[in-house]
Amino acid sequence: MKKQLAMLLCMTALLISCGKDDDNADSQCNQPENAVTEQNAGSYDKVLAGDVTSFMKEYESFSDVRKYYFCAAFSMGAMSVSKPATASAMIGYFLGLGVVKYDRGIDDETYYAFDLGKNAFRYEAVVNHILDSKICENIMIDAADYAKSKKYSTEYLSDKGHQEAEKIVEYIKK
Fold first, then answer.
1. For residues 111 and 118, what is the distance between their CA atoms, to the nearest angstrom?
2. Which of 26, 37, 79, 136 fits a disulfide with 71 by CB distance 3.0 to 4.6 angstroms?
């Protein structure tokens, strides 16, 4: 299980780092053309391409569960930059928390939000807006408070998230 989580973190970090220099993104990342991030690149460019208004319009159209998965991916991405070991340990926790709080895991609709949250790091204006507005901070604090009020253990949530992490790996393989 730890190897799979570490692999998911590495894949997430790799995908986040891809596209930092958009002119060289394809050659640096060498992703297959049918990768999920490539399939959705056009929609990400429209939603995230430094246009905070477009991003907020898309984000506000999300259901609460989609906002959560967007913020879970965004938060894991932020952690992977500063504390990769912490991010690796938190993958199962964040995904499991989504399952227990919203009674919904990763599917086509929630994966889109998750993937968008992961790809947000390619767009500085959007990242700055998310951080300045504390959009994800508030959602993640609310989710953590929910887990605390229900007295869910970290181990329980991580176990719940393991299956969701496998689903993400399958989406990435597509």
1. 10
2. 136
